[in-house]
Every structure is written in C-alpha cells, then in structure tokens.
C-alpha cells in the first residue's frame, strides 16, 4: 500500500522510524525492537539509510522487507542520493520491487566525511523525479519546520520544497521540533505556497540530555522554556528525564491532533519502551487501535 492512501482514514496517521543496527551489532538485534513495535500496529515503519555511515543499504531494505512480511505492517525505505549514481539507484529500485516494498523516502543526505559526492543527483527533488520516471513506487520527502540548515531563509526553503513536491513527492515527514508553534507557522506557509500533500509531524521523545544536545546541534531545533526547564531539572535523573520526555511528547501530540495534524511520525530511536508508552498515551486521541 502506498503511504498516501493512508491519509484517507478519518484519523491522523501514526508512524515510527527505526535505524539499522550499527555495523558492530548483528542485524538480528533489530528483531527484538520490531517484535515490540509490531504489537503497536503503527500505520507504517520507516527505516533510515546509512545515517552517519553506519549501515549498508541492504540492511535498510532487509529490515523493510521483514516489517512487511513478518508483521504485516507497511514500510518505507529511506534512500539518500548525494553519494548515489543513476546505476546504483536503478539497482535499489529493482531490489525494492522484487521485495514488494512500495514506499521510499527520497533524501539528498549529507556528504560522508572522506567520500566524494556524486553528480547525478544534486537535491532530493532530482532523486524524486528520477524515481517517479522509473517506477510507480510511492515517494515521500523530508521537510524542515525550522528551516534546513543550508537554506538562507524559510521562503527559500519552502520554494525548494515546492520544487521537490512538483518533482513527485507525495507525502512529507518533518524534522523533529519541540515547539509546536514552529510547526503551525510552517504549515501555514507551506499551504500558502501551494504545497498540498500530507505532512507528518516528526516527534523525537527525549531520553537523555546528551541525545538531545546532539540532535539540536545537528538540526537547530529551538527549545521552548518549558522544555529547557524539564531538561535542567531532571538531567541527572535518567528515569525522571525519560518519564518527562514521554509526557512532553504526548503533550505535543495531543496539541498537534487538536490542531488537525495529518500524521505523527515518532523517531523511536529503536526504543520500544518509549514508543509503547507514547502510543498508549495517545491511542484514543489519535483513534488508533493497539
Ligand atoms: P533537499 O530536499 O535536497 O534539501 C537540502 C537543501 O537544499 C535545503 O537547504 C534546500 O532548501 C535546498 N534545495 C532543495 N532542493 C533544491 C533545489 N532544487 N534547488 C536549490 N536548492 C535546493 N539522512 C540520512 O543520511 N539518512 C536518513 O535515513 C535520513 N532520514 C531523514 C528523515 C527525515 C524525516 C529527515 C527530516 C531527515 C533525514 N535525514 C537522513 C537527514 C537529511 O539527509 C539531511 O537533512 C540533508 O541535509 C537534507 O536532505 P533533504 O532530502 O531534505 O535535501
């Protein structure tokens, strides 16, 4: 099933994101995570692609196949193109087709240290256009409520997002954010720009101070005072910080749903405990059966 078809339901879409295990861990270590996430019956699970160069692409595709075949849950394979060629993308598209994986998150990605970028695809929009011309796979893309780090302004970033959607991206997943007002402002501008595809809100539950500092330095998400106070108060108490992080994510989701969000994409960090707590906390709000 294509992800766009999921937005016909009378409730927001609920999806999870996982990453392949690091090279030092066996691929099977993801099985435990998936066994638990599978019980939460999200609408789909997406699998990252070589983030920080940790995994080969076949891991992403293997995990997507498993999610679909073993758990009967739709999956979405992330694919970055900054180091890809048309030939390498053709091979991946063929593999996805063989394994009945019907959704891709088309990304530019970031240059991996020590690797030369390729020239076939400069932006995610180039990859989206190429995939659409070659296959009938569903194509999703990323978006940035607080502006992508390389863009000079929100206006420029949204104009580029429009190019991406016009190139064939049918659904967007947002970068994480902690201030819902940033997301609402963004959505208003996106709609004014004539971008009418569903946009899922990316929610990252905070599990440790270190994790959040790393994520914020990577993506520049702003931290509302309410959030910073929680971090300061509980930074040396991991259990309390975890509980507070779960409660904060639930609070964000309730507000998003009340404001008519198309869907919620939870960055699970391969932590099924947190995914379960959040899913149980919002199941009636989202109208999602667990
Ligand atoms: P693009 O859409 O190409 O945008 C990148 C920059 O170029 C932006 O500043 C944009 O304004 C500009 N731009 C875009 N199109 C044009 C154009 N046509 N002309 C001129 N400028 C343009 N990274 C991974 O390595 N693996 C993953 O699995 C992964 N998953 C992600 C999932 C989500 C939901 C998100 C939000 C990000 C993910 N990333 C992942 C990170 C992502 O690869 C980086 O944020 C990367 O810097 C940008 O990728 P993009 O696809 O958004 O790029």
Task: Describe the fold and architecture.
The chain is an alpha/beta fold. 47% of the residues lie in helices and 15% in strands. The chain is built from 11 helices and 8 strands. It has an 8-stranded parallel beta barrel, surrounded by 4 helices. Helix 2 runs parallel beside helix 11. Mean pLDDT is 94; it is low at 51-55. It binds flavin-adenine dinucleotide. Flavin-adenine dinucleotide is lined by residues 48-51, 78, 80, 107-110, 123-125, 142, 148, 150-151, 157, 160, 163-164, 173, 175, 202. Flavin-adenine dinucleotide binds next to strand 3, helix 5, helix 6 and strand 6.
Structure classification: alpha/beta
Number of helices: 11
Report on the biggest sheet: 8 strands, parallel, barrel
- Element order: H for helix, E for strand: HEHEHEHEHEHEHEHHHEH
Give the fraction of residues assigned to helices.
Answer: 40-55%
Main sheet strand line-up = 1-2-3-4-5-6-7-8
Task: List segments where confidence is low: pLDDT < 50 over at least 5 consecutive residues.
Answer: 51-55
Q: Would you count the extended β strands for me? A: 8
Give the CA-based shape: globular
Bound molecules: flavin-adenine dinucleotide
| Strand residue percentage | 15-25%
- Radius of gyration in whole Å, from Cα? 18 Å
Could you tell me the mean pLDDT?
Answer: 94
Distance between the termini: 20 Å
Q: How is the topology of this model organized?
A:
Elements: H1 3-6, E1 13-18, H2 29-39, E2 44-47, H3 57-71, E3 74-80, H4 86-98, E4 103-107, H5 124-134, E5 138-143, H6 154-166, E6 171-176, H7 180-192, E7 199-203, H8 209-219, H9 225-234, H10 238-258, E8 263-267, H11 272-286
Parallel strand pairs: 1-2, 1-8, 2-3, 3-4, 4-5, 5-6, 6-7, 7-8
